[in-house]
Prior knowledge:
Catalytic activity: N(6)-dimethylallyladenosine(37) in tRNA + (sulfur carrier)-SH + AH2 + 2 S-adenosyl-L-methionine = 2-methylsulfanyl-N(6)-dimethylallyladenosine(37) in tRNA + (sulfur carrier)-H + 5'-deoxyadenosine + L-methionine + A + S-adenosyl-L-homocysteine + 2 H(+)
Structural class: alpha/beta
Oligomer: single chain
Distance between the termini: 54 Å
Subcellular location: Cytoplasm
CATH superfamily of the largest domain: tm_1862 like domain
Binding site for [4Fe-4S] cluster 2: 175, 179, 182
CATH architecture of the largest domain: Alpha-Beta Horseshoe
Strand order of the largest sheet: 2-1-3-4-5-6
Radius of gyration: 23 Å
Number of strands: 21
CATH topology of the largest domain: pyruvate-formate lyase- activating enzyme
Binding site for [4Fe-4S] cluster 1: 12, 48, 86
Number of domains: 3
CATH class of the largest domain: Alpha Beta
Bound molecules: 5'-deoxyadenosine, iron/sulfur cluster
Helix content: 25-40%
Strand content: 15-25%
Number of helices: 14
Domain MTTase N-terminal: 3-123
Amino acid sequence: xxxxxxxxxxxxxxxxxxxxxxxxxxxxxxxxxxxxxxxxxxxxxxxxxxxxxxxxxxxxxxxxxxxxxxxxxxxxxxxxxxxxxxxxxxxxxxxxxxxxxxxxxxxxxxxxxxxxxxxxxxxxxxxxxxxxxxxxxxxxxxxxxxxxxxxxxxxxxxxxxxxxxxxxxxxxxxxxxxxxxxxxxxxxxxxxxxxxxxxxxxxxxxxxxxxxxxxxxxxxxxxxxxxxxxxxxxxxxxxxxxxxxxxxxxxxxxxxxxxxxxxxxxxxxxxxxxxxxxxxxxxxxxxxxxxxxxxxxxxxxxxxxxxxxxxxxxxxxxxxxxxxxxxxxxxxxxxxxxxxxxxxxxxxxxxxxxxxxxxxxxxxxxxxxxxxxxxxxxxxxxxxxxxxxxxxxxxxxxxxxxxxxxxxxxxxxxxxxxxxxxxxxxxxxxxxxxxxxxxxxxxxxxxxxxxxxxxxxxxxxxxxxxxxxxxxxxxxxx
Length: 478
Ligand code: 5AD
Ligand code: SF4
């Protein structure tokens, strides 16, 4: 009999990708994925440790699931609870101590061993349940947070579950940069690139199953240096090769580091039409002093030069970034430099956060911590500026015709939702069967977080396939 599996994913897109792979690998044990947590046999929380708030959310969710487990136990039914991802990696055994009803804890490097771990947890849970007269909720206590020598990617199941119009493809994991504030090098480990042949094979499989857009993922994706016949390939070379896959209409990548933007990558932005003109290139701060304290290994001028090179190659490139306010030692003057840089670049979209001390990272240990109220003030000021830039960018899209990859139907009847080249969500009316297709949409209104418009053609039967290689479409978005 099939069992129901619910995975709740926190944090970055890498976790979204990992959750999908976990789903794939548990099919062999009879687990079917469901989208709501009601009446399920197993819950996996795929967690994020990047900021304190993200970690807190996990423990409060665990409290809720515990009550669910108690209710099921009262009916004699088990509920297996697993904690995966970066909180699992960072806290390991501590989770089982704090939340003894958890059955399984496993880190991001061990999910290829998941079927084996789940089987072990299932077995132990049954034994404990029996020992408690069938009503116990004590967890199985299986913990695996190794950094194994073998690559988890070697064990990916051939089949990928539901394929979608836009899919993630993980090509790189971990980070060797050790920014002062960041837990990633500790939770995801040393930098690792998947071999080129493996990436290409997975990309071809995805495209064959209907995926039109791939987002290449990595914590430091442009540090990619995948093994290939005749030597290592960088990201630019990989993108060129991916662009040869027939039916792959769009390529994106995230997250990148300014120091790893090499000439080959810049050239890919110039030469590969499938590479979308939108780039998330985090800078974190505009102050040279803070950038140095953050161990970012570049200054503001170097970041701006990278952007100039990219814009020269692809003049319509839109940019996004991450910012941290209140890093230890950040003064008013430093913060003003961040605002200045934001004004100089002009972002289409950006994420900004208050600095959150992470145990074990260098910045957490200094006594130069910035007052919480000051952080809040700075965040508000920065977000006002970024929101205004985003709104202006969206408003400037009005009147343009954008090729939109339709991802799903919208909440309103007859409405479709997709993404334009610059990652903006675009809503427009049209029939369901356009999901997965690229449709030209004339943008009629630009809002804070989305655009709305009308498909250029009213003749659905002849909806043109607007691929990026279509010269007509090149003109349309120009
Ligand atoms: N505090 C606040 N923000 C952080 N980020 C990473 N670590 C921290 C931290 N300790 C942000 C950075 C990074 C993004 C994914 O999260 O801006 O680019
Ligand atoms: Fe973290 Fe990115 Fe810095 Fe690596 S480059 S330490 S992932 S912020």
